Amino acid sequence: MPYRAPVEDFRFLLDHVVDFAQVAATERFGDATPETVEAILSGAGRLSEEVLAPLNRNGDLQGAKLENGVVRASPGFAEGYRQIAEGGWVGTSADPEFGGMGLPLTLNSCVNDMMGAACLALQLNPLLTQGQIEALEHHASDEIKALYLPKLISGEWTGTMNLTEPQAGSDVGALRSRAEPNGDGSYAVSGQKIFISWGDHDVAENVCHLVLARLPDGAPGTRGISLFIVPKYLPDAEGNPGVANSLKVVSLEHKMGLHGSPTAVMQFDGATGWMVGAPHKGMAAMFTMMNNARLGVGIQGISVADGAYQHALAYALDRVQGKPVTGTHGGIIDHPDVRRMLIGMKAELFAARAIALANAVAIDMARATGDAEWDARAALLTPITKSYGTDTGIAVAQAGIQIHGGMGFIEETGAAQYLRDVRVTAIYEGTNGIQAADLVARKMMDQGEAAFRLIEEIEEGAEAARGRLPDLAGAVWLAAESLRDGTEALLAQAMTDRLAGSVAYQRAFALVLGAHFHLKAALAEGGEGSRTALARSFILRMLPQHGALLAEMREGAADLYAHNIESLAS
Q1: Closest alpha carbon to 6 in 109, 126, 120, 117
Q2: What pTM was estimated for this model as a whole?
Q3: What CA–CA distance (Å, rounded) separates 300 from 511?
Q4: I need a surface site. Which of 98, 156, 561, 565 has the fewest CB within 10 A?
């Protein structure tokens, strides 16, 4: 079955689940009319189905290559990227002053979801550029904005982020890259960066690198890091790509998936760059891009979940094996266990997508209103979105292979590609363990205020649903109350104990939040129909896991550190 863009699902979520109307009602996003929303969703859906999806398999089989110092993209990727750029999809949420559409991030998230499901390896390119655009909009000088933003927004140039070094992964403060003033306002940037997605390619005319490096007077650790924009080709007097900068691709990584996305080892040898933001404040500027990317990576996981689900469903409808226990279709979809897996995939996909779009709505509302509560809501949801979205992508892709049975282990069916492609999403842009640590530490510095506000909303929603869906509403209310108690227990723990239970707490929060959105969907449908049936499956089958997860969270770290190194090695 070819990829089908879930345009109707997005319409339903925006209209009935995540309250997109409040975004469109703000002055900033008043152009997001129903007609505009429809045009964006339907246009991105067609692009994803007709242009990008046919490139997905080929990108896996014929990945990007480094030839004589030049990175060649997978066949067809340049043409696909050109249609993304010419359609204005790179700049959907960018500032209209520089050529963007200025539409809400929520809509852009829907676009990225469809594009990622169609061809994740190619979608990663504009996603990175969008993050760079946001970082420059917030932190760059007027001169840099005027030169770079129009080119990035139009898709003529693309953007990357350069953080990781061989000795500095999650510990960014251990980086060794240096930046020396040239005396003319520019800097000579030197160092090596690894894991640079789309670090070089031939699909656009220039590649602009955001590079973290330390000035000569920069203090050790993250507080001494500055941020620089370092283009592959130095812009000439007219703003067009001129002479080559002093940087190169050392090699491309050989990865288990995402073969169509070139992941480069980059070497900067006194490359000319310009500072973005204030000296020694590079991490603050880079976090603008990283937070954008963390939402985007969560959506990548959801994208792959959608593609894997559709692929598995098509196989289950066609494959005949054994005598079904019940049902009349004839395919393996009539077997209870296959039905269990498919419904679980679809239910978790809906929950993860709703959480991601609610996160995007919170970001949009914070930008449009300046309200600190919306900002806190967005910050709280970001690590949950990133982790639950990517965990869902991995779980759904894994289940898709299982539904294919032995054929899922055969590459020609395409089922394995989804798992190979999505696996890295739980690692890059901050591992899911780091997201969990962020949730229980930095995001709880308000003593749980933002979390308790969200839990209160979940309980109020459940109370409102008791009359029509008493069993589902009661289960969601009890789960929210358990989450409240668990959050209070978490806040009372020492930090080591919090961190030991952080992954369990994060997933428990996601399940309760997902159940809340499923309940809203069931109510919007009227309490009967396919969305209500899906909500029932999620709330009664999957939500109960939250209790065990919160019990794990309460255990703390004592048992983990009761094991000495010798016992682990024996």
Answers
A1: 117
A2: 0.96
A3: 19
A4: 565
Q: How do residues 59-93 score in pLDDT, each as one tens digit?
A: 999 999 999 889 999 999 999 999 999 999 999 99
Q: Tell me the DSSP string of 487-529.
A: HHHHHHS-HHHHHHTHHHHHHHHHHHHHHHHHHHHHHHHTS-S
Q: Within its chain, how far is the Cα of 49 from the centroid?
A: 20
247: Cβ contacts below 8 Å, ≥ 6 apart: 209, 230, 232, 266, 267, 268, 269, 271
Please report which helix (H) or strand (E) contains residue 395, including its range. helix 372-404
Main-chain dihedrals φ then ψ at residue 283, nearest 5 degrees: -65, -35
H/E stretch holding 374: helix 372-404
**Pairwise CA distance, residues 259 & 64, whole Å:** 7
Read off the pLDDT of residues 145-181 as tens digits, 9 standing for 90 and up: 999 999 999 999 999 999 999 887 777 778 899 999 9
Annotated active-site positions, please?
429
Q: If phi over 0 gives left and psi between -120 and 50 gives alpha, with beta otherwise, what is residue 28? A: alpha
Among residues 349, 542, 359, 376, which one has the least CA distance to residue 446?
Answer: 376
What CA–CA distances, in Å, run from 123 to 59, 133, 348, 566?
12, 16, 22, 45
At a CB cut-off of 8 Å and minimum separation 6, what does 551 contact?
A: none
Residue 534 has pLDDT above 80, yes or no: yes
